[in-house]
Design a protein that fits this description.
The complex is a heterodimer of chains A (about 290) and B (about 775). With about 290 residues, chain A is an alpha+beta fold. Chain A has 3 domains: about 45 residues, Uridine Diphospho-n-acetylenolpyruvylglucosamine Reductase, domain 2, CATH 3.30.43; about 120 residues, Uridine Diphospho-n-acetylenolpyruvylglucosamine Reductase, domain 3; about 110 residues, CO dehydrogenase flavoprotein, C-terminal domain (Enolase-like, domain 1, 2-Layer Sandwich). Chain A has 11 helices and 14 strands. Chain B has about 775 residues and is an alpha+beta fold. In chain B, about 30% of the residues lie in helices and about 25% in strands. In chain B, the strands form 7 sheets. In chain B, strands 3-5-1-12-9-10-11-22 form an 8-stranded mixed beta sheet, sandwiched between helices. In chain B, strands 7-15-14-13-8 form a 5-stranded mixed beta sheet, sandwiched between helices. In chain B, helix 9 runs parallel beside helix 10 and helix 14 packs parallel to helix 15. Classes of the chains: A alpha+beta (about 290), B alpha+beta (about 775). At the A-B interface, helix 11 of A face helix 3 and helix 19 of B.
């Protein structure tokens, strides 16, 4: 491995100052499970590494019973085990458990996962259906960005130069809401999704109908995305195999998967439909 | 027969150091002034080096040696670890570094520098200009008339091996039905935990060089390395520390000559340690094979003719391939009896990394094809798959055509019976195409279960194709404990433990009182072939048992002198020598040995043997798999594997079961997920990493039930035969046959990926609708 410049800011403002003065010629490190692998392979060229892990404000989970504020440095294993995450955001907890291996989950962070902007991210589809709000901080101050505006392409995000993600806010869904996350790969652990999906169904009070559906897909497009056309089909519809099958086909239509060494695009497209249908069935039949 | 130590589940001799992390592997070692070696690899699959300039790299401070093709001895060599033998066809077509790249990763230059960073920086400063040639990535492309030549052989065919027994045309004419199918199995890697390719070479002041290396065959690697360097064999000393798994990947020279040449040029010790990626890029894998099988059969299941035409994709260099064609023919030939057999094996060069040995050595490939087809034949004839196998396999007392020797013992029939019972064969086979019960996805009903089986035979050593020499020295120390000096090529399988048990049993000492040399050292131990062909228990065990017997004979003679009784009246057990008819007349081995050392004529009791074992008794296995196929996703889940293995006497049943269970993990990977792939036009490897080369995790493993059938062999040490390789040979075929039972599809190419399963299901549905 080559030598490289290493920075270890102690506060968010120090971090932002460094990002600004280095004019972006630095990689932010929040967990390192993806970054270090990439850097060992491609080399550092003239870039340095900015380690955000020593900044206390970026850690911790706060919950007031309605809004959960998740620090960007929260590890995936913390998310997976957190009782309130499991109770109120089960699809996110399931996604966290599906990510990588125990070793990777112990290092990888929610902020790093979002910042890497992998189209196959496991956390992103779950965060999309819970309509996470990303708190960003940069040279021009703080702002909040809805997660559906965050992903711009593979590895591309809406972060402005010098900006970092500080916290991720989630609001507890309406009572009775059910959700599920499913991931498809060829093995049960240590896997990158061929397709993944998170779904959320808000039932109409005292009826078998669906008030609102949210469906997100990963690894079948340049970014993770919401299958809005499938969601629209389910709004007001009765929940069940027929409507779910129809919604799954609509979701499938919105995918644009690639072919690579992991799977062909036809198979990914097929599986997107199967997975959405199964996730909807599982969520509807299960409890929150 | 009852034994004291053989058959016991004693702890392994290397257990403590390995589970505590204290074992010192080659890559952990360091020597004063040690340099780090690195290899510059070709980025092209097929290219000529037009110009190479190392001046800048040489002038970089900290760089102590830079070598290219210009610096290597112009001696052709072959990396495969074979003893010169009738079955070894050793085409020498390699140099230590090349001026013509034949695969992505071929070694073009190497450097030794004071540290890794400097070595890597130096690699980046070597300027190479290539003339890129077309990449030939499969046997069809390579054999085409217009294809460029990878080496100077017509159509890139390095060898053609024809075998004819009887008259297949007549056999097909006599058949009631003839089956013809084409099968393909991909390139897969051994992926041992310790990456393949770790060597540390240190030259001395007397023209000799010592190489610590992670190898399966210290003595043969010594000879090949010496030849490649232009040295005589004894100028090289190989030391083999603990090895972190091998599975065939270290069956010959890996990177020892590069490390040695860097060490010689720099005059300093050099460590050359391949990364995981380099292990994929530049070391040997299992051979991809295309096999066309044609089988003629009578209605009662008798085979009238069997024919195989196989294309062996050997990759960029010959290494094992032309010799490997022999066992490939042997596995096919010897599995099922038939009066008429014809085989044509073509060994072909391509621009992929050279292929070599991987657990099973051609048998997993052949068994996948043969057992898939036999399953189809049984279905077409309406026979139970168990019946057709029981009817046609070679039995004890018959000649096994692999070796042309008489089969000593056969535990297959018992294995099939017990295995079938364990998997629930009878009742489950009746429920073909039945819906899965408890595991079915809610409301979708897409999961179907099935059971299948396959059988295999394998070797205990490689006689008479290859020499099977082993040497052992047993010396009894003053305290009555013994050293077993042996070229211990245990690479994790537990053979060092088994051999210690053999020595202790024969000597009549306690297991804890016999110490095998854990490290193999060619300056110390006698010539030994190493770990190949599942030979350690049988071949190594034979030499160890005889050396122990020789020592015991001298021990009893000495004891007879002391006790004043004939030696023939004495027996030894648990470290005590007794008069058989008068057990109160007893003397400890310690006392006898002490008297030997320091009595009237001082000498140490030593037994030494170097020889080949008398035979090569085959082992049998029947493996059964139960699977669940998801017809909507194409995913196959293996629910259970039952492995019934005839291993002869199990010297250490825990070690034997461990070997089988570990092998099954590799066998399921071969069946379902593993495939090393290249970009077909450029030959760039697509998955030289653990992200995309999919070996199974602990979570993917099904329940495994191991059944040991101990049909012991008279010529084996205490009746032992073998186990090392056989655990994975039949696994993929058993799974493929279970998939056929579950959903009625026959996939003839491994791995059985979800995409192939879905395509086959669609095809079946479409043909059903016509």
């Amino acid at each position: 491995m080559q030598s490289f410049n290493y920075y270890e800011p102690a506060t968010v403002w120090e971090a932002i100052g460094l990002l600004e003065s280095l004019k972006g010629n630095v990689f932010s490190l929040a967990g390192g499970t993806d970054l270090m692998r990439t850097l060992k392979k491609t080399g550092f060229t003239d870039y340095g590494v900015l380690n955000l892990k020593r900044i206390p404000e970026l850690g911790g989970i706060e919950f007031d019973g309605q809004v959960m504020s998740v620090g960007a440095l929260t590890t995936v294993s913390t998310l997976a085990a957190h009782p309130e995450v499991n109770r109120h955001f089960p699809a996110l907890a399931q996604a966290a458990r599906a990510l990588g291996t125990p070793q990777i989950r112990n290092l990888a962070t929610i902020g790093g996962n979002l910042g890497t902007a992998s189209p196959a991210s496991d956390l992103a589809p779950a965060l999309l259906v819970y309509q996470a709000r990303l708190n960003l901080l940069g040279p021009d101050g703080a702002r909040v960005m809805a997660i559906n505006e965050f992903f711009k392409g593979p590895g591309q995000t809406g972060l402005a130069p010098g900006e970092i993600i500080t916290r991720i806010d989630l609001t507890v869904p309406a009572a009775g809401t059910v959700g599920a996350f499913l991931k498809h790969g060829v093995r049960k652990s240590h896997e990158i999704a061929l397709v993944n999906t998170a779904v959320l169904l808000v039932p109409l009070r005292a009826s078998a109908a669906i008030a609102e559906a949210r469906i997100a897909l990963g690894a079948v497009g340049p970014t993770v995305f919401r299958a809005t056309q499938a969601e629209e089909q389910l709004a007001g519809a009765e929940g069940g195999p027929v409507s779910f099958e129809r919604a799954a086909r609509a979701a499938q239509e919105m995918t644009s998967p690639i072919s690579d060494v992991r799977a062909g695009n036809d198979y990914r497209k097929h599986m997107a439909g199967v997975l959405v249908k199964r996730a909807l069935l599982q969520a509807w039949g299960g409890t929150i | 027969m009852a034994y004291t130590i053989v058959g016991q589940r004693v702890p392994r001799v290397d257990a403590r150091e390995k589970v505590s992390g204290r074992a010192v592997y080659t890559g952990d070692m360091t020597l004063p002034h040690m340099l780090v070696g690195k290899v510059l690899r070709s980025p092209y699959a097929h290219a000529r080096v037009v110009r190479i300039d190392t001046a800048k790299a040489r002038s970089l401070p900290g760089v102590k040696a830079v070598i290219t093709f210009e610096d290597v001895p112009k001696i052709f060599w072959n990396s495969a670890g074979f003893p010169p033998s009738p079955g070894a066809i050793l085409m020498e077509d390699q140099y230590i570094l090349t001026d013509k790249a034949r695969y992505v990763g071929d070694g073009i230059a190497a450097v030794a520098a004071v540290d890794e960073k400097t070595a890597e920086q130096a690699l980046g400063m070597i300027e190479v200009e290539y003339e890129v040639l077309p990449a030939l990535m499969n046997v069809e492309a390579a054999m085409a008339d217009e294809a460029p030549l990878i080496h100077d052989v017509p159509n890139n065919i390095m060898a053609h091996m024809p075998i004819v027994i009887g008259d297949v045309d007549q056999g097909f004419a006599e058949a009631d039905m003839v089956f013809e199918d084409k099968y393909y199995v991909p390139k897969v890697y051994q992926v041992s935990m310790e990456p393949c390719g770790v060597a540390m070479a240190a030259p001395d002041m007397d023209g000799r060089i010592t190489i610590w290396t992670s190898t399966q065959m210290p003595h043969l690697v010594r000879g090949i390395t010496a030849h490649a360097l232009g040295l005589s064999t004894s100028q090289v000393r190989i030391i083999k520390p603990p090895v972190g798994g091998a599975f065939g990947s270290r069956l010959g020279v890996v990177n020892e000559p590069i490390a040695a040449l860097l060490a010689i040029k720099s005059g300093k010790p050099v460590m050359l340690k391949y990364s995981r990626e380099e292990s994929f890029l530049a070391t040997e894998s299992r051979h991809p094979l295309t096999m066309i099988l044609k089988t003629g059969v009578k209605k009662d299941g008798t085979f009238t003719a069997r024919q195989m035409t196989a294309y062996l994709d050997g990759g960029a260099y010959a290494t094992h391939t032309p010799s490997f064609a022999g066992p490939v023919a042997g596995w096919f030939l010897a599995m099922y009896k038939s009066p008429n057999i014809k085989i044509d094996n073509y060994s072909v060069y391509t621009n992929s990394t050279q292929c070599g040995a991987f657990r099973g050595y051609g048998n997993p490939q052949v068994v996948f094809a043969v057992e898939s087809q036999v399953d189809d034949i049984a279905a077409a004839l309406g026979l139970d798959p168990l019946t057709i196998r029981l009817k046609n396999h070679p039995c004890a007392g018959e000649v096994w055509m692999w070796s042309n020797w008489v089969i000593e013992s056969c535990g297959l029939d018992e294995g099939i019976k017990r295995g079938a019972e364990a998997i629930g064969w009878g009742e489950k086979r009746k429920k073909r195409f039945a819906e899965a019960g408890e595991n079915a996805v809610t409301g979708t009903g897409t999961k179907k279960r099935g059971v299948g089986m396959a059988y295999m035979m394998h070797v205990s050593g490689a006689r008479p194709m290859l020499h099977e020499t082993s040497a052992a020295v047993v010396k009894i120390n003053e305290d009555g404990k013994a050293n077993l000096i042996y070229s211990n090529s245990d690479c994790g399988q537990g053979s060092g433990t088994a051999l210690t048990q053999v020595a202790a049993e024969e000597l009549g000492l306690n297991y804890e009182d016999v110490f095998i040399t854990k490290t193999a050292d060619t300056d110390v131990a006698g010539f030994d072939i190493g770990s190949h062909a599942s030979r350690q228990a049988y071949s190594g065990g034979n030499a160890v048992k005889k050396a122990a017997a020789a020592a015991k004979e001298k021990l009893l003679a000495m004891a007879a002198e002391i006790l004043e009784v004939p030696a023939s009246d004495l027996e030894v057990a648990q470290g005590m020598v007794r008069v058989r008819t008068a057990p109160e007349q007893v003397i400890s081995v310690a006392e006898v040995s002490h008297k030997a050392h320091f009595g009237t004529h001082g000498h140490q009791i030593i037994g030494a043997v170097s020889e080949e074992p008398p035979g090569n008794p085959p082992v049998y296995a029947a493996q059964f798999a139960e699977v669940e196929v998801d017809t909507e996703t194409g995913v196959i889940e293996v629910l259970k594997v039952v492995a019934a293995h005839d291993v002869g006497t199990a010297i250490n049943p825990a070690v034997v079961e461990g070997q089988i269970e570990g092998a099954i993990q590799q066998g399921i990977g071969y069946a379902l997920t593993e495939e090393y792939r290249y970009q077909p036009e450029t030959g760039q490897p697509l998955n030289p990493n653990f992200t995309d080369y999919k070996i199974l995790t602990a979570l993917d493993m099904p329940e495994v039930e191991t059944i040991l059938v101990e049909a012991s062999a008279e010529t084996g040490p205490f009746g032992a035969k073998s186990v090392g390789e056989s655990g994975l040979v039949a696994t993929a075929a058993a799974i493929a046959n279970a998939v056929y039972d579950a959903v009625g599809i026959r996939i003839k190419e491994l791995p059985l990926s979800p995409e192939k399963v879905l395509a086959a299901l669609r095809e079946k549905e479409n043909s059903g609708n016509e």
